[in-house]
User: Fold this.
Amino acid sequence: MIDRGRLERRIGELARIGGSGTSVSRLGLSAEEQQARDLIGGWLAARGAVVRRDAAANLFGRTGGVGAAVLVGSHADSVPDGGRFDGALGVLCAVEAVEALLDAKMSLRRPIEVVAWADEEGARFGVGLFGSAAVFGRLPAGIADRRDRAGVSIADALRAFGERGDPALARRGAKEFASYLELHIEQGPRLEKAGIALGVVDAIVGIYHARVTIRGQADHAGATVMTARADALAAASEIVLAVERLARSRPDAVGTVGEIAVRPGAKNVVPGECVFSLDLRTSRDLDPFIHDVLAAVERVAHERHVQASIDELAHVPVTTLDPKIREVLRRAAKTVGVDAPEMTSGAGHDAQNPALAGVPTGMLFVRSTGGSHKPSELASLDDAALGAEALAVALRELVS
Ligand code: HGY
Ligand code: MN
Ligand code: MN
Assistant:
């Protein structure tokens, strides 16, 4: 059903937006992400879809009549210096699957909406799953005022696109959607190790994101004896190692500090302030894990006579996906010759927001190699085409 050549061409076209070699930097709410929306919107409009961008900069292309739509897509943004397939492949396969159904002159009993979510990674403003959270009413309070390193707020970035600066205006009712499907690269090694091209996601890990600020006492690095210091970076370093120890002590948990900034940041000044990110995930008991990490922050702050403050950015519970949709996806994978295993996603995905809003949601994984969130991320064209074909089969079942 799908047109393999069209998919291959489009993988290349989209990767060139914000791309350099096999690396892609297409940050959320950036000009590059908008270029991606323009490209994707052009493909959809050329097939007669009603294309629109919402107040949170999500792109929708609707085909078919009135009523609850099958929503299918993924995110258009990337992490800095990321790969060509994370998010992008899900959007490209969604477009390809819909075009395949149109090419086959399928009668659509339900409308289909293709979506390219805005700012899933939260790379600029810190809050991930932004676009889908806006549509399903799960945005953290005050989010439009959050600023990137250049001091640009989410509201400013949206207004620069001609939107009104309030992402909450993108809110839609869950009842507008009969189901949500998302194809995504696995981003881990399991399908590759198993030698299987496709997987079906049974659940997505719970995720906690926060920004921790440690305030100590800047001072002269030479004239300040060790016993008279309140070194913010030394305290942060102890916390980073505590995060690693606590994550290692829990099966199914991971803990990462991926961003850190030191002020004033000079070799001969005792660090007065340190700001760092927290990314905690587990497929069960997320809250006790968070509790233990925050207790470690408190303990270290007390012992080292520094102040610690926590700015929570996201708290998404473990999200089980819909059994019926999972069955549709397993059957569709079987149709293309793959006995797809069920597997839990260690990566977070936009799918968590429709699922938590009550929309029957499923995800199809495509084998990827070379890790993820880096230029070596790779999905073969064979596997991408298999994924697109399975997605088209699943869509056909859900709309016919
Ligand atoms: O961080 C994640 O899991 C996703 O790539 N945003
Ligand atoms: Mn990602
Ligand atoms: Mn992704």
About this structure: Residues 134 and 198 are 30 Å apart (CA to CA). DSSP finds eleven helices and 18 strands in the chain. The pocket of manganese (II) ion (ligand 2) is lined by residues 79, 86, 121, 373 (CB under 6 Å). The radius of gyration is 22 Å.
